[in-house]
Design goal:
Length: about 220
């Protein structure tokens, strides 16, 4: 992400903010779509490759997009512009976690209810619905308690329910990222914008340096 952030700002100057930011969002789309195909057998090499795609997409998106926002804010209002930029990013991140998490939990719970074996003790059922980690823990307890078949059934049901919700949640995120790419291609300025000259700033600089304001502005 650090490398692509540096490259992203340079590429935006050369090829345009619109193209670079949209490319970053498309990389995020590919990342979420790729992650949605994960399973219990997914290896660390695949996960590392997925994270490289994610970091590249984030870097190409965040740095040029922030530059595009701050480039149109007068210097005297840079603090306000930065605060609004951060606030919208934090709000969107919070909503994203809430929405995607709700999609996952809803699908996990419904799939698990159908996958758990009948006759399972109520306490085990409640534990399994709390989280996938709790479900796997309950399966281990059943296995050690002499109910190996029941434990395997709970483990299999929990794994199936987890990846069902996990895949759907990532596809939702991929759809949002793809929509963001289309929005960037439609409305984002093609080139990085230049911050407008603030008359008050020019006057202050001129007074501080002894240079006439008009000459300094030129």
């Amino acid at each position: 992400m650090a490398i692509s952030s540096v490259l992203g700002t340079r590429l935006a100057v050369r090829f345009g903010t619109k193209l670079v930011v949209a490319s970053g969002l498309l990389a995020m789309t590919a990342f979420y779509a790729w992650v949605s195909t994960g399973s219990a057998s997914t290896g660390y090499g695949t996960i590392a490759a997925e994270m490289i795609v994610a970091g590249t997409g984030l870097g190409l998106t965040a740095a040029p997009a922030t530059e595009a926002i701050m480039g149109v804010v007068p210097a005297a209002k840079a603090g306000v512009g930065s605060a609004v930029n951060d606030a919208t990013r934090l709000l969107a991140g919070t909503l994203g976690v809430a929405v995607i998490g709700s999609v996952y939990v809803s699908l996990y719970t419904s799939r698990l209810s159908a996958a758990l074996p009948t006759g399972l003790p109520a306490a085990v059922t409640r534990t399994a619905h709390a989280s996938v980690g709790a479900a796997l823990g309950a399966a281990d307890v059943l296995h050690r308690g002499g109910h190996a078949a029941l434990g395997l059934s709970v483990r299999g049901g929990a794994a199936s329910a987890f990846f069902h919700g996990f895949s759907a949640a990532n596809l939702v995120a991929a759809g949002v990222a793809a929509a963001g790419a289309l929005i960037a291609l439609t409305w984002l300025p093609a080139q990085p914008t230049t911050r407008p000259v603030d008359t008050a700033d020019v006057r202050n600089v001129g007074a501080a340096t002894g240079t006439p304001a008009l000459d300094r502005a030129q």
